[in-house]
């Protein structure tokens, strides 16, 4: 099995990456491969809201000048699990990460390619905004019908300079427990294939209120 993790921090080895690494260490103990992709240092254009990905249904964003997004979509499609990691910028997801997620999940929501995979979010924060950012990341996973593992608290770890999270013993435990529970859930999903049928996929219903 394989999990692909996305580091939404501009820093290649900052606290967000280190939090992902704690989760990944527990997955690797259970024989699960983890690939970490650095999103936060790329130049990624925001979604154009053109809707062409829903017209073409080719699992691609129509924007071609930053093709990382389409590469990463395919990596998620091929993986068994997904981790979304972001630092907190003004009580929200870091901008580059948000642009990537807006485009990728709009593409994937139309194809149900992530449905019933396992997905988790992790957040690194200096002081405030961790829970809003955690909720925002989870909105993407929920939208595409991923199954989300839990930890023993919200998946937020604290630190300012890279390495500060080493002082957050509770935060490190949260990440370890998340990794263990994610590995457990991945195994349950894998072992259930061929034995437990997935719920029937319902086409999305949209409600438009007319006055």
Structural summary, described in words:
About 40% of the residues lie in helices and about 15% in strands. By secondary structure, the chain is an alpha/beta fold. The chain has a five-stranded parallel sheet, with helices on both faces. Helix 1 crosses helix 6 (about 170-190) and helix 3 (about 70-80) crosses helix 4. The chain is globular, with a radius of gyration of 17 Å. The model has no long low-confidence stretch (mean pLDDT about 95).
Give the tags.
211 residues, alpha/beta, 5-stranded parallel beta sheet, 6 helices, 5 strands, globular
Number of strands: 5
The rounded Rg comes to: 17 Å
Shape: globular
Spell the H/E element sequence.
EHEHHEHEHEH
**Number of alpha- plus pi-helical segments:** 6
The major pleated sheet works out as: 5 strands, parallel
Helical residue percent?
A: 25-40%
Calculate the mean pLDDT score and round it. Answer: 95
Through-space gap between termini: 50 Å
Strand content: 5-15%
